[in-house]
Amino acid sequence: MNKLWTLTNPLLVFSLFLSLVTSLYADPVPPFPTDPGAWVNSGPLSMESLKGKGIVLWFFEEDDQGSAARWRTTVDEVKKFEGRPVIFIAVNSGSPRQKVEAYVRQVGGKWPVIVDQSRDFESACGIFQEIDTKNVSLFRYITPDGQMHIPVKDEIKEIADLAEEGAAWKIDPSNIPDPLKQTWFAVEIGNYKGLGANLKKSSSSPKAETKEAAAKLMEIVQQEIDAQMAKIKESQEASNTFKTHELLSELLDRFNGFELPKETATMKKDLAKDAKVKAGMQALKSLETERKKLAVGNPAAKAKSVAALEKIVNDFPETSLARHAQALIDAAQK
After folding, report:
1. In terms of domains, do 96 and 216 share one?
2. Rounded Cα–Cα distance for residues 85 and 79 (Å)
3. Domain count, the chain
């Protein structure tokens, strides 16, 4: 009798259907860009730094007539989530950074923005109809377990509610003095660049609550530095010098202004002379060349480009260089 009631109850049936759809469209999140030039309003963020938070990705088009009004409406909706552990990140695909930066400044956008000029991130998120003037807005959300979901409806409040389930801050914001709130939020999302001086000053504050809060924030930053150094040393031990170069460059940029291990300066000099690193930097430049060749559509040229990209994937394993090359291969083979 109970089973029959369940099957004939429309609300319960819809709820079960929604749960099934959500679980079917749950995938691991593709890596966020590590290049600082691929971000506006923020340094590079990562799933690791955002661990435990809900995340809403908003893919937007800037060239249609209603784009500015859509920004204002979306931002107004998101204001209801201030103080809650949900991070909103905008994504623009297909446009150069300079154009995206100017547009975001024009509309007064304050969110972190991913500049996805190559559309690699868009494609990796399972968006196969490009975001453009015919498909102007689309959402994905990421739950605290690191799974990405396709929402049933493009209603940001409902999406943010789903993303927030099980999410939590590292430090309760109610314990953070107002002068440190902005710094606290930057630490929470892993946007450490430029925070060093303020945290150092606050750590010596005569006010006990400020000093205590700064110490807690510094502890989080130090844990992140230690974790990144562990990755660098592991890569060193595996003799993967280009991966070591990428990880070290990320460390030096992301934690600019903080005290870093003295050995990083020596590492940087040694890696600059390394033949594999030099080859990787050259391969990085060739990615754009191969992308242009693939866009032409000539079968013979396409085959040569794919072969060149496959060599990059094989020569530079476990690097963002290899991931970018593989994304180009995947796009060419669709």
Report:
1. no
2. 13
3. 3
